[in-house]
């Protein structure tokens, strides 16, 4: 595929020269103003390379490339100007993170060489990010799948908290929610060390024995030890730390991504704990509001709105063999001996689905289980008995 390039210049003869030189080799778009350039980035991006003139009527190239960086941070930015001075070059490089600063006029072969260097840089960044995200996501998926097998109650809670935390973070204007998703799941990774019965006591708000309370007190340090050395998870570790410490969240900067995510995660964890102890939705919200500066008022208010919009739960019964990945249990699945292998609220994974099928073959779990109805799939549920 041809590399995608955007060239912005208010001089039509310059744009025409770009077209003559570049259109056969690259997927080229041009714009005659910063406004048109930003619109193209929003509508047609991403571009591998963005080339901008320095002097334009609406705004200068530095300001344009700063805004372009906000819209498309991975695009490689190049500045062209006929007014070469050192101060402009330094400002352009520092404020717009410019890859190259070139003086006009520039020889065609030199310009093409710079473009090739920029495209190579873009490909390196893109390939590194894709490899990292796939490796990181794959590793985290494995860890959380292990959590689902070793402590399904903790995994079920982590999944509930992740889903609600993402909704709440989006309501707070957090655009990239992958870090809070990972934080919600990995914050429960150390729960593999907590016996299920002890975790259930804690979730129900029952009094813990001193040795049980000590288990939970050690979780933050264990979590930090487990994930603290994984590359690119520094923000995730800090989000988890913030969610576990009882300092004031009354005032946080909306520009501080980690602070918002930490406050969101703390609120959702506390809200979920209250719900598991039998509080109603609005009763749980009022309890958070009564805690003063332990929870941010704007976050709790958004949480109240989200909770009020959640539809009433409808359920149906399916056989173990009819369970599919993504279904949510509305009751515990227990063995004949009373061991919970998948708790209420658990979202079925492929590993757990296979485990339940195997246990059913051994006649150690019931044949039917109650699941939450997915509104989009409700009409497909015609062959299974409804709960009376």
Provide keyphrases for this structure:
10% strand; alpha/beta; elongated; Hypothetical protein af1432; 3 domains; single chain; 9 strands; five-stranded parallel beta sheet; disordered C terminus; 388 residues; two-stranded antiparallel ribbon; Rossmann fold; 15 helices
Description:
With 388 residues, the chain is of the alpha/beta class. Helices cover 53% and strands 10% of the residues. It folds into 3 domains: 4-126, Rossmann fold (3-Layer(aba) Sandwich), CATH 3.40.50.2300; 151-310, Orthogonal Bundle (Hypothetical protein af1432), CATH 1.10.3210; 313-388, no CATH class. It is built from 15 helices and 9 strands. The strands form 3 sheets. A 5-stranded parallel β-sheet has the order 2-1-3-4-5, sandwiched between helices. It has a two-stranded antiparallel ribbon with strand order 6-9. Strands 7-8 form a two-stranded antiparallel sheet. Helix 6 (152-171) runs antiparallel to helix 7, helix 10 runs antiparallel to helix 11 (234-244) and helix 12 crosses helix 13 (281-289). The N and C termini lie far apart (58 Å). The model is unreliable at 378-388 (pLDDT under 50).
């Amino acid at each position: 595929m041809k590399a995608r390039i955007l060239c912005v210049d208010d001089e039509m003869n310059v744009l025409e020269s770009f077209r003559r030189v570049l259109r056969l080799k690259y997927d080229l778009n041009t714009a005659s103003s910063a406004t048109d350039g930003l619109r193209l980035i929003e509508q047609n991006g991403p571009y591998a390379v963005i080339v901008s003139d320095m002097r334009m009527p609406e705004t200068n190239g530095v300001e344009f490339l700063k805004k372009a960086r906000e819209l498309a941070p991975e695009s490689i930015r190049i500045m062209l100007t006929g007014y070469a001075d050192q101060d402009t070059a330094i400002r352009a490089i520092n404020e717009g993170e410019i890859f190259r600063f070139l003086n006009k006029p520039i020889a065609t072969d030199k310009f093409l060489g710079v473009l090739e260097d920029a495209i190579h840089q873009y490909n390196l960044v893109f390939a590194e990010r894709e490899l990292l995200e796939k490796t990181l996501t794959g590793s985290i998926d494995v860890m959380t799948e292990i959590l689902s097998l070793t402590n399904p109650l903790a995994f079920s809670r982590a999944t509930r908290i992740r889903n609600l935390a993402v909704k709440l973070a989006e309501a707070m204007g957090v655009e990239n929610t992958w870090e809070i998703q990972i934080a919600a799941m990995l914050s429960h990774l150390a729960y593999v060390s907590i016996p299920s019965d002890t975790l259930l006591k804690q979730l129900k708000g029952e009094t813990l024995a001193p040795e049980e309370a000590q288990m939970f007190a050690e979780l933050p340090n264990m979590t930090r030890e487990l994930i603290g050395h994984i590359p690119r998870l520094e923000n995730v570790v800090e989000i988890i730390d913030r969610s576990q410490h009882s300092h004031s969240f009354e005032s946080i900067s909306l520009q501080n991504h980690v602070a918002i995510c930490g406050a969101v995660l703390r609120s959702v964890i506390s809200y979920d704990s209250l719900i598991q102890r039998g509080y109603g939705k609005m009763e749980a919200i009022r309890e958070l509001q009564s805690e003063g500066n332990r929870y941010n008022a704007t976050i709790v208010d958004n949480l109240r709105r989200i909770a009020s919009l959640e539809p009433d739960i409808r359920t149906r019964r399916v056989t173990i063999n009819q369970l599919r990945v993504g279904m949510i249990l509305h009751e515990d699945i227990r063995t004949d001996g009373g061991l919970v292998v998948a708790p209420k609220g658990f979202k079925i994974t492929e590993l757990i689905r296979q485990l339940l099928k195997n246990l059913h073959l051994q006649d150690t779990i019931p044949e039917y289980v109650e699941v939450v109805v997915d509104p989009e799939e409700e009409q497909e549920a015609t062959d299974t008995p409804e709960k009376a």
